[in-house]
Amino acid sequence: METQNIIVRVATPDDSHFATTITDEMESSAKARGTGIAKRSPEYIVEKMHEGKAVIALTEDGTWVGFCYIETWSHGEYVANSGLIVSPAFRKSGVAKRIKECTFKLSREKFPNAKLFGLTTGLAVMKINSDLGYEPVTYSELTQDEAFWSGCKSCVNFDILMSKERKNCLCTAMLYDPKDHYKPEETAADFKQHSKAYERLMRFKQSRFIKAFLKKATGTDNTGDKQGGASSGKKKMFSLLQFFFNF
Questions:
Q1: Could you tell me one molecular function GO term of this UniProt entry (predicted)?
Q2: CA–CA separation, 116 vs 239, rounded Å?
Q3: Reported pTM
Q4: Other CB atoms closer than 10 Å to residue 19's CB: what's the count?
Q5: What confidence tens digit (pLDDT) does each residue in 24-73 have?
Q6: What whole-number distance in Å separates Cα of residue 195 and Cα of residue 192?
């Protein structure tokens, strides 16, 4: 699919009629991947469009292609680029990267001093974020705004998050700090170097978390036997086990 015929721009109130299509695709995509996602209503998406805090992608004839929006937390100290979604017909076309780049630029324009962060279970999104200068971090470096974490309640993995006392979950946290960050070419090169390790660790993390959660919930191990009772600095770049297994 050629992306040069796809328009990526800041969404406006005139795009409100796409809101239901966007939220429906967000939900169906999460179900297809078998991963969690914080649900958003069409009304919430429309609000973001009216605030100028969303990016939309359309074909020249007006067909919806993709979407992403901005959320602010801790009185504007933190900004999240959330809800990235691409229509199935346009996936693997490179448009997701263009949407993220546009959303990143919009975030920097509106909130130049804010720390930009995101949570993802996808390796493809990790790569896009790395190309923009994001780096993996522990959850302790994210906003502690209760409203943000409340948004995870509709995620299927919320119980796992709470069982880890909000210190970790299946998602990987990534952060861009405008006052203290690596150059995009550095984070992109590091991701390329360690991408296979990230992929293995993400699979292991998912398996380990789910098994540990089921064990805690049922009081048994995977054999059915009853069991007995019972951040470091950001510049320690990509210490994988710390980022993925901050128990």
A1: acyltransferase activity, transferring groups other than amino-acyl groups
A2: 20
A3: 0.73
A4: 22
A5: 999 888 776 655 556 789 999 999 999 999 999 999 999 999 999 999 99
A6: 5
